[in-house]
Specification:
Length: about 240
């Protein structure tokens, strides 16, 4: 570890790395010295993020994967285990926002997609990468949530319920492993952030009125340097 590259020698995996907070976090991790595995569905978008990482002298590997496909996460973990002995950092940023609607009018297909992306894929990631994370000297998992997971809000029932389950999975896993390994789990609520998802939810909002994704990424990098305990939660305002 060096002062200028605090994450040198570490391997990080970021889901939802093709845009928004995921992309900003991947860039920040690379700038801090980590080799970053970029996971998302769209190859072109991942390549654009990788080009930006290489432009700042960082290193990365793209992994175009639809996390909701059967066995996709298991195949991804097997491929990564074939190249690296450990995974030091896992940032779970990928999420799906269904249309905001009254609970009685939730679209079943969109709700299913949200459950698969926000919940089922999260459990699959934790299960598949458990061995690599536990073998790390100080493994860290950062899960990105939303305030509606803990504080239900009208019209946000489909998304909020999946984020509540997302948080439960992360906290349960963290409690299960904290006495068995140095692995620690934290949950971050990014707060109002300038992303495509935010624009969909608040189409009339001036994007410049909320903070950029880089602000959240900066806080994540700072948190990784701290000796936090499992169960750590915070909001980035």
């Amino acid at each position: 570890m060096t002062e200028t590259k605090p994450l040198a020698g570490r391997t990080a995996l970021v889901t939802g790395a093709s845009r928004g907070i995921g992309a900003a976090t991947a860039l920040a991790l690379a700038e801090a010295g980590a080799h970053v595995i970029l996971v998302a569905r769209k190859v072109k978008s991942l390549e654009e993020v990788e080009d930006r990482i290489h432009a700042i002298g960082g290193s990365s590997t793209i992994a175009p994967v639809d996390l909701t496909e059967q066995d996709a996460v298991a195949r991804l973990a097997a491929a990564i285990a074939g190249r690296w002995d450990t995974l030091d950092i896992l940032v779970v940023s990928a999420a799906y926002l269904p249309e905001l609607t009254p609970l009685s009018q939730i679209d079943p297909k969109q709700f299913h997609q949200a459950i698969m992306t926000n919940v089922v894929a999260t459990q699959a990631l934790l299960a598949a990468f458990d061995p690599l994370l536990r073998r790390a000297e100080a493994g860290r998992i950062i899960g990105l949530t939303s305030s509606v997971g803990a504080a239900p809000r009208p019209f946000w029932g489909a998304y909020g319920s999946t984020k509540a389950a997302f948080e439960n999975l992360l906290e349960t896993y963290g409690a299960e492993v904290e006495k068995l390994s140095p692995l620690r789990v934290a949950i971050i609520d990014p707060g109002a952030t300038r992303t495509a998802m935010r624009a969909r939810a608040y189409p009339g909002e001036n994007p410049e009125s909320v903070k950029p994704p880089e602000s959240v990424a900066e806080r994540i990098i700072a948190l990784l340097a701290e000796d936090f305990s499992t169960g750590h939660r915070e909001r980035v305002d």
